[in-house]
Automatic annotation (TrEMBL):
EC number: 3.2.1.31
PANTHER family found in the cross-reference section: BETA-GLUCURONIDASE
GO molecular function, one term: beta-glucuronidase activity
Class of enzymatic activity (EC top level): hydrolase
Chain coiled-coil ranges: none
Family affiliation: Belongs to the glycosyl hydrolase 2 family.
GO biological process: carbohydrate metabolic process; glucuronoside catabolic process
Domain Glycoside hydrolase family 2 catalytic: 269-585
Keywords, alphabetical: Glycosidase, Hydrolase
Residues annotated as domain Glycosyl hydrolases family 2 sugar binding: 12-177
Protein name: Beta-glucuronidase
Amino acid sequence: MLTPRTTRTRDIRPLDGLWRFALDGEVGERPWATRLPIDRLVPVPASYNDIFLAPEIRSHVGVVWYQRDVHVPATWGGQRIVLRFDSATHSGTAYVGDELVVQHHGGFTPFEVDITEHVMPGEVARVTIAIDNRLTSETIPPGVLVTGKDGRDQQLIRHDFFNYAGLARSVRLYTTPVDHIRDITVRTDVVDGLGAVHYEVDTSAGSEPAVELRDEDGRLVTSGHGTSGSLSVPDPKLWEPGNAYLYDLVVRLGEGGDEYTLPVGIRTVAVRGQQFLINDKPFYFTGFGKHEDSDIRGKGHDDTLLVHDFELMGWIGANSFRTSHYPYAEEWLEYADRRGIVVIDETAAVGLNINIAAGLVGGATQRTFSPEAMSDATRAAHAESIRELIQRDKNHPSVVMWCIANEPASSEEGAREYFEPLVELTRTLDPTRPVTFANQGAARFDNDRIVDLFDVVCLNRYFGWYEHTGDLAAAEGALEEELRGWAATHDKPIVMTEYGVDTLAGLHSAHPGPWSEEYQIDFLEMYHRVFDRVDAVVGEQIWNFADFQTTSGVFRVDGNKKGVFTRNRRPKSVARALRARWMAMVAALDERTPIPSDI
Ligand code: GCB
């Protein structure tokens, strides 16, 4: 699916701004057929939850309505007009005027619809969307709906981050010519120093496109013709971590026909033995699991925060992040492409484990993979979430690996039957990128049932926090034993995709115990000592980049505080220690980057 871009033949009208907003119970039978009251307006993009003070909005379970009017430019006559939502969390049903035009399930991927027949250039159109935040065993992520004794719907979720909802990403109208480019897929390769860009173009009327590859200065490198082909690039400038280079693939449908420009990075990714290779060179991941999360706007996309987060990642020496636990706004990947930051791209399949609490505190266990919990319907939704992720992100050079689930019950019976077809699907949709899942501590190297289906072992471990709390000596032993166990039993690279401790910014102690800034430093130092001793470890992504909001509960104090930065992006003490480690690693790999003088 192509991201909307203005080109010679395409125009965009952003629909971001203030929309009319109502809860389902506040409106009549057919809200799309009337004008919603204007006494409450909601900003787009933003999650609606934290903006208003009314508790019934913050913790609303069910449908809310967004509506606005849009002037369709008079100059758009004869064009194809598309309405596009970059996301609607977790499902959306959109109307133009009185007509239902599109429905979509899955809160973190885009959807769009041709509305040419529903609008008149030069006139005003009313756009309404119903957004439902409910999660069930048939959604990704899954959740459980219960009705409380007071008759209110309650949403139980199986992950700790707050269930923010609404239109958290941009909404746009855009145009294309009637005969248009529907999609472009590129795959790149480098053989004996010669770059290759293999392309496929899907066009609405089967027209044959002309294709040009241009360098960053706009100079023509090579060209081709037809709906698929390979362009050879002698002496290619590769897309490298920390040193991105992007060509432009310009696709045109005949003289004056539709035109689209796709940025392309030439690079290869492979797993060989216990190494992760980018451009045939061993790559070591440094960085974070993140969240789309900030004060007031919740998961609302914000370019200011995006650029600032990349600045902080650059400052600290991070070369990568994981889009834990859902696909982020596409702007994140576009910026990562430009900045040479490596991305592990994750679906929203978080919480496929109904026994995590029992694993930690004991208690009865039930079967996760069963008709009552994660069923065939869950898997169907999961398959769709993989399709949509790859469909959207397949062309981003920054994306080096698909992560199809976070912490599923991978040691439980039924896990293999559940996952095998999903891994196959991922590989069919994209044979070029490695595939992984983030493994949870209850599934160890000797009882995990699915890891051999995947290319890289990604581990989330909390020795020293949830286990061996406060006892870093015991934690160090347990961590090393586990890593060596994985390395000995599986000939695959290991990335630690989560390790971290809740840390209250400003809490200092001469006796470094849990929650203090000193403990966070000691904890990470201990993990890093162990990583440096185990060759199979090819990456460290700390949980989390920043503190983030969670559902209220006894395990969290105003959110998850495992951030290296606070929620408003101030560094905790550990940030400098990390910077020293990661900058030294960058400098060791790349003589162009000296170690900064202030560390
Ligand atoms: C995990 C989850 C992550 C949580 C984290 C924690 O294992 O993958 O979503 O936020 O632990 O802090 O408990």
